[in-house]
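Risk register update: the risk of archive-format incompatibility is retired. Evidence:
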Amino acid sequence: MTATYTFDVFTSLDGFGSHHGDWGGYWGKQGPELLAHRLAQYRDDPRMVFGATTFRSNVEMLAGDDEAFDPWVRRMRSLPATVISSTLRGPLDWPDATVVSGDAVDVVARLKEESDVPLRSHGSLSLNRALLAAGLVDRVQVTVFPVLTGKTGDGPIFAGVEDFDLELLDARTLDGRTQELVYRPTRHP
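Archived output:
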């Protein structure tokens, strides 16, 4: 049996994964229900999977006092992580991270076969686009924040992906404003 792989991503309504504006984290739309729900999703001890760019960004963003970060972020940082990179070398400034070089599709296919726990990737857009194309993503979890960032949006999350049909597996509203949508992707013929 293979492990389930979830591509987990935050986005503005217009499809950007980040911004260069003055919105702040979560585009300023986080609330207690969102934060509690995020923490609950990491209680099953998944193995995190990161590409090098997202990993570097996380290390930089999360440097310093762990107590300053949301509980789900601290939990994510404490989980075992595989970082797929041909440029990073250990030791890494992450409690339980391992760098694996090689083709990301091969690495994740092997992880799915060998892992006893679910696999989850938060962000890592180019990595997850390649994994979608290879048919290795079992779930696409999109958390949509109620903002339009046409002027300040960065990182269109699905730019360049192939065509996919999405079967809605779960949908919920958090804090009365933020949508979480979980889909099963299948390549569109």
